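ok so i was messing around last nite and threw this chain in just to see what happens. nothing serious, just curious
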Amino acid sequence: MKRIARSIFYLSILAGIMMTSCAKEDTTTTEVSRSSLTGQWMVYETSKKNTYEVTIEIDPSSSNGIQIINFAAAGQNVKAIAYLSGTQVSLATNELLSNGWIVNGTGTVTGTTRIDWPYTLHDGANQTSLQAVFTKK
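result:
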């Protein structure tokens, strides 16, 4: 009798574990629109401990592009082009900015108010890996 009771006890624990491990995960991803990203953003570069402002605008020359004015604190006359896909926003490969810098990287959009964006910057002399956090104003 003790053997049956013990078996039932262990089977009920096993069934409970199996039921909780079979919970369906939410695998949906939220699409982010270009228009939801437009506007003023504060950027904090964690590695340089540098804060600056950028403006994001829709790139009229593509269906998924955005223009980022002052990316990497390059100046108000410097625009980087990036492309939105789902919740990812990617700079063009080896994006050459008008000031001569080359940038690469893909950011992850959270909601419509935050972008975590690791990128590399080559200023003509040195290549630096940076981590930027964009927060919408």
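not much to say yet. The helical segments are 2-21, 34-37.
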